[in-house]
């Protein structure tokens, strides 16, 4: 049995033209979109699409404007899910002045191209606004609720997927910087901070999906999830970060982590993956942010290693039945997190072997080949292939049909008049 069988759809599609079956007709069936979320961040696109920020905060992931058309083409050739930055300190540098229009324009640019957009994150201690520190705890909590309600409501229908709260395991004991979110967490506790984020977001958009996201994939995270579920908090998916600046953890270890978190019966999202194509960060570094170097170049040897690591990582994640998405954290080395050469493109915009490797996986090996079929006397054709969206082209018109994984009752679609 293929280890991708759970990714396949087996569905009979009944084609109709008007009120009659489209019988004995040659049609073309093209797989145009995956059901699985193959994601990347879209941070680099915000300035290009919507202009520079109105606040004084400098962005670190700026890409030269003349390179952006080519970058967009390479991005859209592979990915169908974009994570956009809603870091509160940058998004609302002054109270009451959020960057809503810029992020909305960027989100709409992606959605118009069929890309699912995710907002990251609604609540996080890191990059919390400094102006929160001047407020008492009760006002901090009400301000958090107002922020979540405002953004989830305003973006509903454009962004319906959010990281509700980020890195809760470390939240109450975070010491790198004084911030009002950690201060509130020390009073309320982890579970109540999760409840604050999720309940507020769900009330603002009952149709939204909200993710608990963390880098700490230890038993502490498992215990937090257990406690939250026992407290009646509705979590729609579990986010697992896999930044691997110190080297690929190996397909077996990645699989083991997915196995441990799959026991909750919730979809898993591999939310933040990085693999470097240069020298690895030394293993003694505990907090990745502590590693600072003047230059961290990509190398031919590192690029070959990154490509193989990407193949192994993507294959393991796509193989696991609990996963619904995998987001890579950066398409280019421009402005990459920690200055690492973890992008899929070099700074000059050329593709690394890793880009070519996952392009081949997603668009060739894991995409159902285009076929020509002949409809039966009831207008039916059987579609067996990777779950997702299929474009059916007939002499009378074209239609798209989205087919989930598994075997399903026949689906009826109409083409033409």
Automatic annotation (TrEMBL):
Signal keyword on record: yes
User: What lineage, starting at the top, does this entry show?
Assistant: Bacteria, Bacillati, Actinomycetota, Actinomycetes, Micrococcales
* Classification via SUPFAM superfamilies: (Trans)glycosidases
Q: What is the uppermost EC class here?
A: hydrolase
Q: Which GO molecular function entries does the Swiss-Prot or TrEMBL record give? A: endo-1,4-beta-xylanase activity
- A Pfam family in this protein? Glyco_hydro_10
The segment(s) forming the GH10 domain are 65-361
Output the Gene3D superfamilies linked to this UniProt entry.
Glycosidases
Official protein name in the record:
Beta-xylanase
Keyword Zinc tagged: no
Name the protein family. Belongs to the glycosyl hydrolase 10 (cellulase F) family.
At the top level of its lineage, which domain of life is listed?
A: Bacteria
**What does the record give as the reaction this protein catalyses?**
Endohydrolysis of (1->4)-beta-D-xylosidic linkages in xylans
| PANTHER family on file | BETA-XYLANASE, GLYCOSYL HYDROLASE
Extract one GO BP annotation from the record.
xylan catabolic process
Which key words are in the record? Carbohydrate metabolism, Glycosidase, Hydrolase, Polysaccharide degradation, Signal, Xylan degradation
Q: Its Enzyme Commission number?
A: 3.2.1.8
């Amino acid at each position: 049995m293929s280890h991708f069988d759970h990714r396949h759809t087996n569905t009979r599609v009944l084609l109709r033209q008007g009120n009659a079956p489209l019988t004995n007709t040659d049609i073309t069936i093209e797989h145009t979109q995956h059901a699985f979320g193959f994601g990347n961040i879209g941070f680099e696109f915000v300035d290009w699409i919507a202009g520079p920020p109105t606040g004084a905060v400098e962005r670190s992931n700026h890409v030269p404007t003349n390179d952006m058309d080519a970058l967009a083409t390479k991005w859209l050739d592979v990915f169908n899910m974009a994570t956009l930055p809603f870091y509160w300190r940058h998004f609302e540098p002054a109270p009451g002045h959020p960057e809503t229009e810029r992020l909305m324009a960027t989100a709409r640019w992606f959605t118009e191209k069929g890309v699912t957009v995710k907002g990251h994150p609604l609540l996080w201690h890191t990059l919390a606004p400094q102006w929160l520190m001047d407020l008492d705890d009760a006002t901090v909590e009400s301000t958090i609720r107002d922020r979540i309600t405002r953004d989830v409501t305003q973006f509903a229908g454009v962004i319906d997927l959010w990281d509700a709260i980020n890195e809760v395991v470390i939240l109450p004991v975070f010491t790198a910087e004084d911030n009002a979110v950690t201060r509130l967490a020390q009073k309320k506790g982890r579970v109540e901070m999760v409840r604050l984020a999720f309940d507020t977001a769900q009330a603002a958009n009952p149709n939204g999906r909200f993710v608990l996201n963390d880098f700490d994939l230890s038993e502490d995270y498992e215990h937090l999830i257990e406690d939250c579920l026992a407290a009646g908090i509705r979590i729609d998916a579990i986010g697992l970060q896999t930044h691997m600046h110190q080297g690929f953890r190996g397909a077996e270890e990645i699989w083991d982590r997915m196995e441990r978190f799959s026991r909750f019966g919730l979809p898993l999202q591999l939310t933040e993956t990085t693999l470097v194509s240069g020298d690895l960060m030394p293993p003694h570094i505990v907090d990745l942010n502590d590693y600072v170097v003047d230059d961290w170049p990509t190398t031919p040897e590192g690029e070959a290693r990154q490509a193989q690591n990407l193949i192994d990582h993507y294959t393991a994640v796509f193989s696991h039945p609990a996963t619904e998405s995998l987001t890579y954290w950066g398409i280019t080395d421009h402005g990459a997190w920690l200055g690492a050469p973890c992008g899929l493109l070099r700074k000059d915009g050329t593709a690394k072997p890793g880009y070519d490797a996952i392009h081949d996986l997603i668009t060739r090996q894991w995409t159902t080949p285009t076929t020509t079929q002949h409809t039966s006397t009831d207008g039916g054709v059987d579609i067996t292939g990777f779950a997702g969206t299929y474009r059916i082209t007939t002499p009378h018109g074209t239609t798209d049909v989205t087919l989930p994984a598994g075997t399903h009752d026949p689906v009826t679609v109409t083409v033409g008049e």
